[in-house]
Amino acid sequence: ITLVPRFRTYQYTGSDDRLDDDDYSLDVNASRQWDKASGSLLAGYRDNGIRTSEFNTATPGQTTSDSQETWTLGPSFNYVLSERHSLQFTADVSDISYDASPTAGYYDYRNTNLQATWIYAFSQKTSTLLSANGGKFKATDPYSTAENITDSYGATVAVERKFTPTLTGTVTLGASHSNQDISREPFFDPFFGFFCPPGLIPDTQGQCSVSESSDNFVGGITLRQSSELMRTTVEYSQAQAPRSNGTSVVSDNFRLSFDRDFGRRYSGSLNLYYTSDSALGGVGREDRVYYSANGTLRYRLTETLSVSGSYYYSVNDDDANSDEQTNNRLFISLVYT
Fold first, then answer.
1. What are phi and psi of 144, to 5 degrees?
2. Taking residues 47-61, what's their average pLDDT?
3. Residue 60: predicted pLDDT
4. Cβ-count burial of 46 within 10 angstroms (0-12 exposed, 13-18 middle, 19+ buried)?
5. Distances from the Cα of 20 to the Cαs of 11, 12, 48, 61, in angstroms?
6. How far apart are CA 333 and CA 5, in angstroms?
7. Which whole number is the average pLDDT over 245-262?
8. DSSP secondary-structure letter at 321?
9. pLDDT at 131 over 80
10. How far apart are CA 95 and CA 101, in angstroms?
11. What span, in angstroms and rounded, lies between the C-alpha atoms of 112 and 179?
12. What are the C-alpha distances in Å from 146 to residues 69, 141, 246, 250?
C-alpha cells in the first residue's frame, strides 16, 4: 500500500493576488498478487484552484478563487487462464464538483466506466485485446435544474506488437454508442413569456428537454521507444470524455513526448499535446481546441535533492469563450525525494 499526500502553493509576488493558490491532493495505491491473479486499487482526492487544474476538467486561464474538488476510484483485477489467455476487469469512477460563481458555467458531474478485456498472446511479441465497455455520465448545474445524462457502451479490438527490444506499437479500433437525455430550465422574456432554448422542447415537468443518440469511432495508435538514455512516446487517440461544461464529448488527441538522460546528473523532457473536442449530439454544442507544450531541465544535486526548471505554454479556444486564452508559466523547483 502506498499513500502519497501533496501540498502545493502558488504565490505570485507583484502580480494579481487572485492568482495565489493552495492545492491539496492525496493518492492511495494498493495491490495484491496471487498465484494466477492480481488486483489493485487506485484512489485519490484533490482540491485544486481551477486556474491550475488539468485542461480537460475546468477551463484554464481563470484568475478567481474558484476551486475544483475531485474524488477518483479505480479498481482492477487480472486473472491468468492459461499461458496465452488472460482476463482483465477495470472500473473508473470520477466525482467532480466546483466551488464557483453561477456565472462561471461549471457543472458538477460523475463519470463512471466499466471494462472487461480478454487478452490472447499469439507469441512473445504479439498480443490481441478484445474489450467490451460501458459508462454513465451525469452532469448537473448546482444553480439550476439543468442536467445531462449520457449512457454509452461499446467494444474495441487492439493489437500490440513488440517490434524490437526497445520499440512497441499498439493499434486500437472500436465503436461506441451513446444515448443522451438533456434538460434545461426554460428562458423567460417579459414580452414572449417562457420559451425553450433552440433544439429543446417543453416536457410535462415544465422543463425543456431532448433525447439524442449517436455512434462514434473510438481507437488510436501508440508507439513507444525506450532505451537506456531515451524514452519517446507518439500517440493518437479518439475517445469519449467528460467536460466541465455539462457535455460529454468525442475527443481527438495527439501526444508527443521525449525524456532524455544526458548523464548521471542531467536530464530533460519535452511534451507536446493537441486535442480537439466535439460535443455529442447537436444540442448545446461547445466544441474546443486546446494545445500545449512544456519543457523541463533537471539537475541532481545529491541522491535525494534535485533542481529543475520548467516552461509551460498552452492555448485554449472554445465556443464558450469569445477570446482565445493563452497561458505562459515558468517554474524553478527544488525537489527532495
1. -155, -175
2. 56
3. 45
4. buried
5. 5, 6, 12, 13
6. 18
7. 88
8. -
9. yes
10. 19
11. 15
12. 20, 5, 9, 21
**115 touches 133 (CB < 8 A):** yes
pTM metric for this prediction? 0.80
Q: What percent of the chain has pLDDT over 70?
A: 90
Which residue type sits at 42? Answer: L
DSSP 94-157: EEEEEE--GGG---EEEEEEEEEEEEEESSSSEEEEEEEEEEEEEEE-TTSS-EEEEEEEEEEE
Of 237-246, 278-287, 323-332, minimum mean pLDDT range: 278-287
Measure Cα distances from 17 to 11, 116, 145 in Å: 8, 48, 34
Beta-carbon count within 10 A of 207 CB: 18
The Cα–Cα gap between 302 and 337 comes to: 10
265 grid coordinates: 546528473
Mapped onto helix, strand or coil, the DSSP state of residue 142 is: coil
**What's the Cα-to-Cα distance from 305 to each of 97, 195, 229, 268, 308, rounded to whole Å?**
36, 62, 21, 16, 10
Q: Which amino acid is at 116?
A: A
| CA nearest to 313, candidates 295, 289, 286, 288 | 295
pLDDT at 54 over 60: no
